[in-house]
Write a structure and sequence with these properties.
seven-stranded mixed β-sheet; 20 strands; Nucleotidyltransferase, domain 5
Protein backbone atom coordinates (compact mmCIF):
# COMPACT_ATOMS: atom_id res chain seq x y z
CA UNK A 1 0.00 0.00 0.00
CA UNK A 2 1.34 3.42 -0.99
CA UNK A 3 1.50 5.71 2.05
CA UNK A 4 2.66 8.75 0.07
CA UNK A 5 0.15 11.53 -0.44
CA UNK A 6 0.77 14.09 -3.17
CA UNK A 7 -1.40 16.82 -4.66
CA UNK A 8 -1.03 18.88 -7.82
CA UNK A 9 -1.73 22.59 -8.08
CA UNK A 10 -2.29 24.08 -11.53
CA UNK A 11 -2.06 27.84 -11.98
CA UNK A 12 -3.34 29.33 -15.24
CA UNK A 13 -1.70 32.75 -15.55
CA UNK A 14 -2.02 35.43 -18.20
CA UNK A 15 0.85 34.14 -20.35
CA UNK A 16 1.43 30.55 -19.24
CA UNK A 17 0.26 27.70 -17.06
CA UNK A 18 2.31 26.35 -14.16
CA UNK A 19 1.99 23.17 -12.13
CA UNK A 20 3.52 21.94 -8.87
CA UNK A 21 3.63 18.48 -7.34
CA UNK A 22 3.56 18.79 -3.54
CA UNK A 23 4.14 16.26 -0.75
CA UNK A 24 1.27 16.73 1.71
CA UNK A 25 3.39 15.36 4.57
CA UNK A 26 5.65 18.40 4.74
CA UNK A 27 4.70 20.80 1.94
CA UNK A 28 7.84 19.96 0.00
CA UNK A 29 7.57 20.95 -3.65
CA UNK A 30 8.71 17.81 -5.45
CA UNK A 31 8.51 19.20 -8.98
CA UNK A 32 7.32 22.23 -10.90
CA UNK A 33 6.84 23.02 -14.57
CA UNK A 34 5.58 25.83 -16.79
CA UNK A 35 4.41 26.11 -20.37
CA UNK A 36 3.55 29.20 -22.39
CA UNK A 37 0.29 29.26 -24.33
CA UNK A 38 1.39 28.76 -27.96
CA UNK A 39 -1.42 30.67 -29.71
CA UNK A 40 -1.26 33.49 -27.20
CA UNK A 41 2.52 33.72 -27.55
CA UNK A 42 2.05 34.04 -31.31
CA UNK A 43 -0.24 37.03 -30.73
CA UNK A 44 -3.35 35.37 -32.12
CA UNK A 45 -6.88 36.63 -31.48
CA UNK A 46 -5.73 39.82 -29.71
CA UNK A 47 -5.75 43.47 -30.70
CA UNK A 48 -3.99 45.77 -28.22
CA UNK A 49 -5.26 48.87 -30.02
CA UNK A 50 -8.79 48.13 -28.81
CA UNK A 51 -7.76 46.31 -25.60
CA UNK A 52 -9.01 42.95 -26.92
CA UNK A 53 -7.28 40.01 -25.28
CA UNK A 54 -8.66 36.54 -26.06
CA UNK A 55 -7.31 33.05 -25.35
CA UNK A 56 -8.17 29.82 -27.10
CA UNK A 57 -9.33 26.94 -24.85
CA UNK A 58 -6.89 24.60 -26.59
CA UNK A 59 -4.05 26.75 -25.25
CA UNK A 60 -5.27 25.88 -21.77
CA UNK A 61 -5.81 22.16 -22.36
CA UNK A 62 -2.61 21.53 -24.27
CA UNK A 63 -0.43 23.52 -21.88
CA UNK A 64 -2.06 21.97 -18.80
CA UNK A 65 -1.41 18.50 -20.19
CA UNK A 66 2.22 19.38 -20.76
CA UNK A 67 2.94 20.71 -17.26
CA UNK A 68 1.14 17.93 -15.41
CA UNK A 69 3.01 15.28 -17.38
CA UNK A 70 6.26 17.11 -16.65
CA UNK A 71 5.77 17.21 -12.87
CA UNK A 72 4.79 13.53 -12.86
CA UNK A 73 7.84 12.44 -14.84
CA UNK A 74 9.97 10.22 -12.62
CA UNK A 75 7.55 10.57 -9.69
CA UNK A 76 4.94 8.25 -8.23
CA UNK A 77 1.69 9.15 -10.01
CA UNK A 78 -0.26 6.66 -7.89
CA UNK A 79 0.39 8.86 -4.83
CA UNK A 80 -1.52 11.81 -6.28
CA UNK A 81 -4.74 12.34 -4.32
CA UNK A 82 -6.06 15.56 -5.77
CA UNK A 83 -5.72 18.41 -8.24
CA UNK A 84 -6.51 22.05 -7.49
CA UNK A 85 -7.08 24.70 -10.15
CA UNK A 86 -6.71 28.46 -10.19
CA UNK A 87 -7.05 30.83 -13.13
CA UNK A 88 -7.08 34.49 -14.00
CA UNK A 89 -10.42 36.22 -13.74
CA UNK A 90 -12.81 37.35 -14.71
CA UNK A 91 -11.94 35.25 -17.77
CA UNK A 92 -15.26 33.86 -19.08
CA UNK A 93 -16.26 32.16 -22.32
CA UNK A 94 -19.43 31.53 -24.31
CA UNK A 95 -20.44 27.85 -24.18
CA UNK A 96 -22.98 25.55 -25.81
CA UNK A 97 -25.73 23.61 -24.03
CA UNK A 98 -23.20 21.00 -22.92
CA UNK A 99 -20.92 23.59 -21.35
CA UNK A 100 -18.32 23.30 -24.13
CA UNK A 101 -16.53 26.53 -25.14
CA UNK A 102 -17.73 27.57 -28.57
CA UNK A 103 -14.17 27.91 -29.89
CA UNK A 104 -13.95 24.11 -29.69
CA UNK A 105 -16.71 23.99 -32.32
CA UNK A 106 -15.07 24.10 -35.77
CA UNK A 107 -17.56 26.79 -36.84
CA UNK A 108 -16.05 29.17 -34.28
CA UNK A 109 -12.49 27.87 -34.06
CA UNK A 110 -11.00 31.22 -35.11
CA UNK A 111 -13.66 33.58 -33.75
CA UNK A 112 -12.24 35.62 -30.84
CA UNK A 113 -15.75 36.13 -29.45
CA UNK A 114 -16.05 32.36 -28.98
CA UNK A 115 -12.90 32.22 -26.86
CA UNK A 116 -12.05 33.02 -23.27
CA UNK A 117 -12.02 36.76 -22.66
CA UNK A 118 -8.92 37.43 -20.60
CA UNK A 119 -9.30 39.48 -17.42
CA UNK A 120 -7.57 42.55 -18.90
CA UNK A 121 -9.81 42.72 -21.98
CA UNK A 122 -11.53 46.13 -21.90
CA UNK A 123 -13.77 45.84 -24.96
CA UNK A 124 -16.83 45.91 -22.68
CA UNK A 125 -16.32 49.40 -21.22
CA UNK A 126 -19.68 50.68 -22.48
CA UNK A 127 -21.53 47.65 -21.13
CA UNK A 128 -19.88 47.98 -17.72
CA UNK A 129 -20.98 51.60 -17.48
CA UNK A 130 -24.57 50.69 -18.37
CA UNK A 131 -24.65 47.95 -15.72
CA UNK A 132 -23.24 50.36 -13.15
CA UNK A 133 -25.79 53.03 -14.02
CA UNK A 134 -28.72 50.61 -13.67
CA UNK A 135 -27.32 49.41 -10.34
CA UNK A 136 -27.27 52.98 -9.07
CA UNK A 137 -30.85 53.50 -10.21
CA UNK A 138 -32.04 50.21 -8.71
CA UNK A 139 -33.73 49.92 -5.32
CA UNK A 140 -30.86 47.56 -4.44
CA UNK A 141 -27.34 48.48 -5.53
CA UNK A 142 -26.11 45.08 -6.65
CA UNK A 143 -22.56 46.41 -6.94
CA UNK A 144 -22.34 47.36 -3.26
CA UNK A 145 -20.33 44.25 -2.33
CA UNK A 146 -17.99 44.88 -5.27
CA UNK A 147 -16.84 48.27 -4.15
CA UNK A 148 -19.77 50.16 -5.69
CA UNK A 149 -18.31 49.87 -9.19
CA UNK A 150 -18.59 47.51 -12.15
CA UNK A 151 -15.61 46.86 -14.38
CA UNK A 152 -15.26 45.95 -18.06
CA UNK A 153 -12.93 43.22 -16.78
CA UNK A 154 -15.86 41.42 -15.15
CA UNK A 155 -18.33 38.71 -16.07
CA UNK A 156 -21.63 40.45 -16.96
CA UNK A 157 -20.08 43.27 -18.98
CA UNK A 158 -18.17 40.78 -21.12
CA UNK A 159 -21.25 38.57 -21.51
CA UNK A 160 -23.36 41.47 -22.74
CA UNK A 161 -20.65 42.71 -25.10
CA UNK A 162 -20.51 39.35 -26.88
CA UNK A 163 -24.31 39.06 -27.04
CA UNK A 164 -24.52 42.49 -28.64
CA UNK A 165 -21.64 42.34 -31.07
CA UNK A 166 -21.66 38.80 -32.44
CA UNK A 167 -25.07 37.48 -33.58
CA UNK A 168 -23.61 34.16 -34.74
CA UNK A 169 -22.15 33.45 -31.32
CA UNK A 170 -25.27 34.77 -29.59
CA UNK A 171 -27.47 32.35 -31.50
CA UNK A 172 -25.73 29.23 -30.15
CA UNK A 173 -24.49 30.61 -26.84
CA UNK A 174 -26.23 28.80 -24.00
CA UNK A 175 -24.31 30.57 -21.24
CA UNK A 176 -21.05 31.99 -20.01
CA UNK A 177 -18.56 30.05 -17.88
CA UNK A 178 -15.55 31.32 -15.95
CA UNK A 179 -12.24 29.68 -16.80
CA UNK A 180 -11.81 28.59 -13.15
CA UNK A 181 -15.16 26.76 -13.26
CA UNK A 182 -14.71 25.19 -16.70
CA UNK A 183 -11.41 23.40 -16.08
CA UNK A 184 -12.66 21.32 -13.08
CA UNK A 185 -15.82 20.45 -15.00
CA UNK A 186 -13.76 19.43 -18.04
CA UNK A 187 -11.37 17.29 -16.00
CA UNK A 188 -14.19 15.45 -14.21
CA UNK A 189 -16.83 15.36 -16.98
CA UNK A 190 -19.16 16.79 -14.33
CA UNK A 191 -21.74 19.57 -14.43
CA UNK A 192 -20.25 22.97 -13.70
CA UNK A 193 -20.06 23.84 -10.00
CA UNK A 194 -19.91 27.60 -9.74
CA UNK A 195 -17.03 28.82 -7.62
CA UNK A 196 -17.88 31.28 -4.85
CA UNK A 197 -14.73 33.27 -5.55
CA UNK A 198 -15.37 34.35 -9.15
CA UNK A 199 -19.15 34.57 -8.77
CA UNK A 200 -18.90 36.84 -5.74
CA UNK A 201 -16.07 39.10 -6.83
CA UNK A 202 -16.88 39.39 -10.54
CA UNK A 203 -20.56 38.51 -11.11
CA UNK A 204 -22.45 40.20 -8.22
CA UNK A 205 -23.41 36.93 -6.53
CA UNK A 206 -24.29 37.44 -2.85
CA UNK A 207 -26.25 35.64 -0.16
CA UNK A 208 -28.20 38.84 0.62
CA UNK A 209 -30.18 38.39 -2.60
CA UNK A 210 -30.02 34.58 -2.63
CA UNK A 211 -27.60 34.42 -5.52
CA UNK A 212 -27.21 36.63 -8.57
CA UNK A 213 -29.30 39.76 -9.10
CA UNK A 214 -32.68 38.87 -10.63
CA UNK A 215 -33.08 38.58 -14.37
CA UNK A 216 -35.33 41.65 -14.31
CA UNK A 217 -32.32 43.75 -13.32
CA UNK A 218 -30.25 42.50 -16.25
CA UNK A 219 -33.05 42.84 -18.79
CA UNK A 220 -33.43 46.45 -17.67
CA UNK A 221 -29.87 46.87 -18.93
CA UNK A 222 -30.54 45.00 -22.18
CA UNK A 223 -33.36 42.60 -23.21
CA UNK A 224 -30.69 40.31 -24.69
CA UNK A 225 -30.26 38.91 -21.18
CA UNK A 226 -33.82 37.54 -21.20
CA UNK A 227 -33.92 33.80 -20.59
CA UNK A 228 -30.26 33.63 -19.64
CA UNK A 229 -29.86 34.73 -16.04
CA UNK A 230 -32.50 32.49 -14.50
CA UNK A 231 -30.75 29.45 -15.97
CA UNK A 232 -27.75 29.99 -13.71
CA UNK A 233 -27.31 27.87 -10.62
CA UNK A 234 -27.75 30.19 -7.65
CA UNK A 235 -25.56 27.96 -5.48
CA UNK A 236 -21.83 28.52 -5.21
CA UNK A 237 -19.03 26.46 -3.71
CA UNK A 238 -15.76 27.25 -1.98
CA UNK A 239 -12.56 25.85 -3.47
CA UNK A 240 -11.95 23.33 -0.69
CA UNK A 241 -14.96 21.29 -1.86
CA UNK A 242 -14.59 18.55 -4.48
CA UNK A 243 -16.10 18.90 -7.94
CA UNK A 244 -15.62 15.23 -8.73
CA UNK A 245 -12.98 12.69 -9.68
CA UNK A 246 -10.79 12.66 -12.73
CA UNK A 247 -12.61 11.24 -15.75
CA UNK A 248 -11.26 8.15 -17.52
CA UNK A 249 -10.40 10.32 -20.53
CA UNK A 250 -8.29 12.78 -18.56
CA UNK A 251 -6.80 10.13 -16.31
CA UNK A 252 -5.39 8.45 -19.41
CA UNK A 253 -4.19 11.72 -20.97
CA UNK A 254 -2.42 12.85 -17.81
CA UNK A 255 -1.14 9.49 -16.59
CA UNK A 256 -3.19 9.51 -13.38
CA UNK A 257 -5.97 7.39 -11.89
CA UNK A 258 -9.70 7.99 -11.82
CA UNK A 259 -9.46 8.17 -8.04
CA UNK A 260 -7.86 11.62 -8.18
CA UNK A 261 -10.19 14.27 -6.73
CA UNK A 262 -10.50 17.65 -8.47
CA UNK A 263 -11.13 20.60 -6.17
CA UNK A 264 -13.29 23.61 -6.96
CA UNK A 265 -11.81 26.38 -9.06
CA UNK A 266 -10.62 29.68 -7.63
CA UNK A 267 -9.13 32.92 -8.92
CA UNK A 268 -5.35 33.00 -9.03
CA UNK A 269 -4.71 35.82 -6.59
CA UNK A 270 -6.96 34.28 -3.95
CA UNK A 271 -5.22 30.95 -4.41
CA UNK A 272 -1.87 32.72 -4.11
CA UNK A 273 -2.92 34.21 -0.79
CA UNK A 274 -3.76 30.72 0.49
CA UNK A 275 -0.46 29.37 -0.81
CA UNK A 276 1.29 32.16 1.10
CA UNK A 277 -0.51 31.25 4.34
CA UNK A 278 -2.55 34.45 4.61
CA UNK A 279 -3.87 35.54 8.00
CA UNK A 280 -6.01 38.40 9.31
CA UNK A 281 -4.17 41.73 9.37
CA UNK A 282 -1.85 40.71 6.57
CA UNK A 283 -1.97 42.00 3.02
CA UNK A 284 -0.81 39.54 0.38
CA UNK A 285 0.34 41.23 -2.82
CA UNK A 286 0.20 38.94 -5.84
CA UNK A 287 2.48 40.84 -8.21
CA UNK A 288 2.72 40.08 -11.90
CA UNK A 289 1.30 41.63 -15.06
CA UNK A 290 -1.18 43.32 -12.73
CA UNK A 291 -1.48 43.12 -8.95
CA UNK A 292 -4.10 41.80 -6.63
CA UNK A 293 -4.03 42.76 -2.98
CA UNK A 294 -5.81 40.19 -0.84
CA UNK A 295 -6.86 40.42 2.80
CA UNK A 296 -9.13 38.34 5.01
CA UNK A 297 -11.24 39.34 7.99
CA UNK A 298 -13.95 37.86 10.19
CA UNK A 299 -17.52 38.57 9.11
CA UNK A 300 -17.74 42.10 7.67
CA UNK A 301 -21.10 43.70 8.37
CA UNK A 302 -20.91 46.63 5.94
CA UNK A 303 -20.18 47.28 2.30
CA UNK A 304 -16.65 48.56 1.73
CA UNK A 305 -16.51 51.18 -1.01
CA UNK A 306 -13.86 51.35 -3.68
CA UNK A 307 -12.44 47.80 -3.59
CA UNK A 308 -12.95 44.84 -5.93
CA UNK A 309 -15.18 42.79 -3.72
CA UNK A 310 -15.83 41.28 -0.34
CA UNK A 311 -16.99 37.68 -0.46
CA UNK A 312 -17.51 35.15 2.30
CA UNK A 313 -15.23 32.18 1.70
CA UNK A 314 -13.55 33.48 -1.44
CA UNK A 315 -10.11 33.02 0.14
CA UNK A 316 -10.51 31.10 3.41
CA UNK A 317 -13.75 29.33 4.27
CA UNK A 318 -15.41 31.11 7.17
CA UNK A 319 -13.61 34.40 6.52
CA UNK A 320 -14.52 37.35 4.30
CA UNK A 321 -12.10 37.74 1.42
CA UNK A 322 -11.25 41.33 0.44
CA UNK A 323 -9.74 42.08 -2.96
CA UNK A 324 -8.11 45.18 -4.40
CA UNK A 325 -5.43 45.69 -7.02
CA UNK A 326 -3.77 47.55 -9.85
CA UNK A 327 -4.94 46.90 -13.40
CA UNK A 328 -1.35 47.07 -14.67
CA UNK A 329 1.98 46.53 -12.94
CA UNK A 330 4.49 44.37 -14.81
CA UNK A 331 2.48 45.15 -17.96
CA UNK A 332 3.66 48.76 -17.64
CA UNK A 333 7.31 47.74 -17.68
CA UNK A 334 6.63 45.48 -20.67
CA UNK A 335 4.88 48.33 -22.46
CA UNK A 336 7.89 50.56 -21.96
CA UNK A 337 10.22 48.00 -23.53
CA UNK A 338 7.85 47.54 -26.47
CA UNK A 339 7.56 51.31 -26.80
CA UNK A 340 11.32 51.55 -27.15
CA UNK A 341 11.23 48.90 -29.85
CA UNK A 342 13.59 46.57 -28.02
CA UNK A 343 11.30 43.70 -27.11
CA UNK A 344 13.44 40.67 -26.36
CA UNK A 345 16.70 42.63 -26.68
CA UNK A 346 16.91 44.56 -23.41
CA UNK A 347 19.38 43.67 -20.69
CA UNK A 348 17.03 44.02 -17.72
CA UNK A 349 19.81 43.73 -15.16
CA UNK A 350 21.63 46.65 -16.74
CA UNK A 351 18.40 48.65 -17.08
CA UNK A 352 17.61 48.09 -13.40
CA UNK A 353 21.16 48.97 -12.38
CA UNK A 354 21.00 52.18 -14.41
CA UNK A 355 17.56 53.03 -13.00
CA UNK A 356 18.79 52.42 -9.45
CA UNK A 357 21.37 55.19 -9.91
CA UNK A 358 18.75 57.78 -10.82
CA UNK A 359 17.37 60.34 -8.39
CA UNK A 360 13.91 59.49 -6.96
CA UNK A 361 11.23 61.55 -8.67
CA UNK A 362 13.37 62.52 -11.67
CA UNK A 363 10.29 61.60 -13.70
CA UNK A 364 6.78 61.37 -12.22
CA UNK A 365 4.23 58.99 -13.74
CA UNK A 366 0.73 57.61 -13.21
CA UNK A 367 0.19 53.84 -13.24
CA UNK A 368 -3.16 53.86 -15.06
CA UNK A 369 -1.98 52.31 -18.33
CA UNK A 370 -4.91 49.87 -18.18
CA UNK A 371 -7.22 52.09 -16.18
CA UNK A 372 -7.52 52.09 -12.39
CA UNK A 373 -8.80 49.09 -10.50
CA UNK A 374 -8.50 50.29 -6.88
CA UNK A 375 -9.49 52.48 -5.18
CA UNK A 376 -12.72 53.13 -7.09
CA UNK A 377 -12.39 51.43 -10.46
CA UNK A 378 -12.25 53.72 -13.48
CA UNK A 379 -11.39 52.03 -16.78
CA UNK A 380 -11.40 55.35 -18.66
CA UNK A 381 -8.23 56.60 -17.00
CA UNK A 382 -4.90 56.35 -18.78
CA UNK A 383 -1.24 56.53 -17.87
CA UNK A 384 0.74 59.75 -17.89
CA UNK A 385 4.38 60.81 -17.56
CA UNK A 386 5.34 64.21 -16.17
CA UNK A 387 8.60 66.13 -16.03
CA UNK A 388 10.15 65.00 -19.30
CA UNK A 389 13.03 67.20 -20.42
CA UNK A 390 15.66 67.13 -23.12
CA UNK A 391 17.97 65.50 -20.62
CA UNK A 392 15.51 62.75 -19.64
CA UNK A 393 16.90 59.28 -20.24
CA UNK A 394 15.56 55.75 -20.58
CA UNK A 395 16.64 54.78 -17.03
CA UNK A 396 14.98 57.91 -15.64
CA UNK A 397 11.64 57.09 -17.25
CA UNK A 398 11.91 53.44 -16.27
CA UNK A 399 12.51 54.40 -12.64
CA UNK A 400 9.57 56.81 -12.82
CA UNK A 401 7.31 53.98 -13.98
CA UNK A 402 8.50 51.75 -11.13
CA UNK A 403 7.80 54.53 -8.65
CA UNK A 404 4.34 55.02 -10.18
CA UNK A 405 3.43 51.40 -9.58
CA UNK A 406 4.69 51.72 -6.00
CA UNK A 407 2.61 54.86 -5.45
CA UNK A 408 -0.44 53.01 -6.77
CA UNK A 409 0.26 50.23 -4.29
CA UNK A 410 0.47 52.74 -1.43
CA UNK A 411 -2.87 54.24 -2.40
CA UNK A 412 -4.44 50.81 -1.97
CA UNK A 413 -2.87 50.26 1.44
CA UNK A 414 -4.01 53.71 2.53
CA UNK A 415 -7.54 52.89 1.37
CA UNK A 416 -7.70 49.67 3.40
CA UNK A 417 -6.50 51.52 6.49
CA UNK A 418 -8.99 54.37 5.92
CA UNK A 419 -11.81 51.82 5.73
CA UNK A 420 -10.83 50.28 9.07
CA UNK A 421 -8.71 47.31 7.99
CA UNK A 422 -5.23 47.75 9.44
CA UNK A 423 -2.36 46.40 7.39
CA UNK A 424 0.08 45.01 9.95
CA UNK A 425 2.32 43.17 7.50
CA UNK A 426 2.81 42.74 3.76
CA UNK A 427 3.77 39.54 1.98
CA UNK A 428 4.53 39.64 -1.74
CA UNK A 429 4.26 36.65 -4.07
CA UNK A 430 4.59 36.16 -7.80
CA UNK A 431 7.25 36.55 -10.45
CA UNK A 432 8.28 40.17 -9.96
CA UNK A 433 9.05 39.89 -6.21
CA UNK A 434 11.53 37.11 -7.02
CA UNK A 435 13.04 38.78 -10.09
CA UNK A 436 13.31 42.49 -9.37
CA UNK A 437 15.03 43.69 -6.18
CA UNK A 438 14.77 47.31 -7.36
CA UNK A 439 10.98 47.17 -7.74
CA UNK A 440 10.50 45.60 -4.33
CA UNK A 441 12.91 47.97 -2.56
CA UNK A 442 11.16 51.00 -4.04
CA UNK A 443 7.80 49.53 -2.97
CA UNK A 444 9.12 49.06 0.58
CA UNK A 445 10.47 52.62 0.62
CA UNK A 446 7.24 54.12 -0.72
CA UNK A 447 5.02 52.09 1.63
CA UNK A 448 7.47 52.65 4.50
CA UNK A 449 6.81 49.05 5.50
CA UNK A 450 8.80 45.83 5.45
CA UNK A 451 7.80 43.56 2.59
CA UNK A 452 8.37 39.85 3.06
CA UNK A 453 8.81 37.67 -0.01
CA UNK A 454 7.55 34.11 -0.24
CA UNK A 455 10.34 31.63 -0.86
CA UNK A 456 8.56 30.17 -3.86
CA UNK A 457 7.23 32.07 -6.84
CA UNK A 458 4.59 29.36 -7.30
CA UNK A 459 2.28 30.40 -4.46
CA UNK A 460 -0.81 30.41 -6.70
CA UNK A 461 -0.24 26.81 -7.78
CA UNK A 462 0.63 25.92 -4.18
CA UNK A 463 -2.73 27.30 -3.07
CA UNK A 464 -4.39 24.95 -5.56
CA UNK A 465 -2.42 22.04 -4.08
CA UNK A 466 -3.63 23.04 -0.59
CA UNK A 467 -7.27 23.14 -1.71
CA UNK A 468 -6.77 19.75 -3.40
CA UNK A 469 -5.41 18.30 -0.15
CA UNK A 470 -8.61 19.33 1.66
CA UNK A 471 -11.00 18.32 -1.14
CA UNK A 472 -9.39 14.86 -1.34
CA UNK A 473 -9.57 14.33 2.43
CA UNK A 474 -5.85 14.44 3.22
CA UNK A 475 -6.59 17.32 5.62
CA UNK A 476 -9.83 18.23 7.37
CA UNK A 477 -9.72 21.92 6.51
CA UNK A 478 -7.65 24.67 4.90
CA UNK A 479 -6.15 25.82 8.20
CA UNK A 480 -4.69 22.36 8.86
CA UNK A 481 -3.41 22.01 5.30
CA UNK A 482 -1.86 25.49 5.27
CA UNK A 483 -0.04 24.88 8.54
CA UNK A 484 1.91 22.12 6.79
CA UNK A 485 1.94 23.10 3.12
CA UNK A 486 1.94 26.92 2.86
CA UNK A 487 5.05 28.68 1.59
CA UNK A 488 7.75 29.86 3.94
CA UNK A 489 8.97 33.45 3.78
CA UNK A 490 12.43 34.20 2.50
CA UNK A 491 13.99 37.58 1.76
CA UNK A 492 12.59 40.77 3.28
CA UNK A 493 12.88 44.31 1.98
CA UNK A 494 13.34 46.87 4.77
CA UNK A 495 12.44 50.48 3.99
CA UNK A 496 15.29 52.97 3.90
CA UNK A 497 14.31 55.79 6.26
CA UNK A 498 15.80 58.58 4.16
CA UNK A 499 14.25 57.26 0.94
CA UNK A 500 10.84 56.89 2.63
CA UNK A 501 10.94 60.54 3.67
CA UNK A 502 11.67 61.60 0.09
CA UNK A 503 8.93 59.37 -1.27
CA UNK A 504 6.40 60.74 1.22
CA UNK A 505 6.70 64.10 -0.50
CA UNK A 506 6.70 62.61 -4.00
CA UNK A 507 3.58 60.60 -3.15
CA UNK A 508 1.71 63.83 -2.49
CA UNK A 509 2.77 65.08 -5.92
CA UNK A 510 1.58 61.77 -7.41
CA UNK A 511 -1.83 62.25 -5.77
CA UNK A 512 -2.06 65.84 -7.03
CA UNK A 513 -1.22 64.77 -10.58
CA UNK A 514 -3.68 61.88 -10.33
CA UNK A 515 -6.50 64.19 -9.26
CA UNK A 516 -5.71 66.65 -12.05
CA UNK A 517 -5.60 63.97 -14.76
CA UNK A 518 -8.80 62.32 -13.54
CA UNK A 519 -10.61 65.66 -13.65
CA UNK A 520 -9.43 66.27 -17.20
CA UNK A 521 -10.53 62.77 -18.26
CA UNK A 522 -13.93 63.27 -16.63
CA UNK A 523 -14.29 66.54 -18.53
CA UNK A 524 -13.27 64.69 -21.71
CA UNK A 525 -10.39 67.07 -22.26
CA UNK A 526 -7.79 64.30 -22.59
CA UNK A 527 -8.23 60.71 -23.84
Amino acid sequence: MNDKQFTIGVDFGSDSVRAVLVDCADGRMIASASCRYPRWQAGKYCDMSIARFRQHPLDYLESMTSVIRQVLAGNDASAVKGIGIDTTGSTPCAVDRNGVPLALDKRFADDPDAMFILWKDHTAIAEAEEILQKARESEIDYTCYEGGRYSPEWFWAKYLHILRHNPAVREVCAGFIEHCDWIPAELTASPVRTGRCAAGHKAMWHADWQGYPPESFFTSVDPLFRGRVDLLDQRTYTADQPVGKLSAKWAEILGLTTGVVVAGGVLDCHSGAVGAGIRAGQLVKVVGTSTCEIAVAPAVERCIPGICGQVDGSVLPGMTGLEAGQAAFGDIYSWFIRFLGYAGEVDFKKLEADAARQTPGCVLALDWFNGRRTPFANPFLSGAIFGLKLGSSVPMVYRGLIEATAFGAKRIVDHFVKEGFPVNSILAVGGIPKKSPLVMQICADVLNMEIQIAETDECCALGGAIFAAVASGVFANVAEASAVMAAKTGKSYIPDKAASEVYAGLYQKYLACADAVEELVNRQLIP
